[in-house]
Structure formats: C-alpha cells, structure tokens
Amino acid sequence: MIISRVVSLVLRIAQFVFAAIVLGLTAYFLYQRSRYHVGPFGRVIFSVIWSSLSIIFAIIWAIPTTSSMTGYVSDLGKCTSVLLSIPS
Prior knowledge:
This protein has helices at about 1-35, 40-60, 70-85. It is mainly alpha-helical. The protein has one domain (about 1-85). Helix 1 (about 1-35) packs antiparallel against helix 2 (about 40-60). The longest helix is centred in the N-terminal third of the chain and has 35 residues, at about 1-35.
C-alpha cells in the first residue's frame, strides 16, 4: 500500500514537471507568435490549456487522500484526448 502511494506521488511530480516544461515552451511560442506573427496559433493554445490543466490536476491529486484512485479515470481521458489531437 505504501509503495503504491510513493509511486503515485513520484508520477504526479513527474507529471507536474513535464507539464511545466510544455507550458514554458508553448508560452515561448505564444510570445514569438505575438511578436513576429509566425507559427500556428490554435495548436499552441490547445497545448497551453491542456498543460495548465495537467499542472492543476497534478497539484490537486498529489495530496494524499483515502480515495487516491479517483484521478485515474480523468488521467485516462486526458491522455486519450491528447493522443487524438496529435496530427497524423
């Protein structure tokens, strides 16, 4: 039981770090877009929204609770939506 909670916390921290990296990169791309008017706009906004939501949910779900399994359903939904949004 304790091992699963530690692994869950480590994965939430990794989710937070990777989402922060994506948010930082897309914020830079938005800055370049506003300054030079080059680059895609819709995909960047989509990435900013999903990475912001991922940061918020990583912080909320990193708090240890008795019902720590509730976040996995929405994680699956977020992962699926991100994978479906990748252009082929």
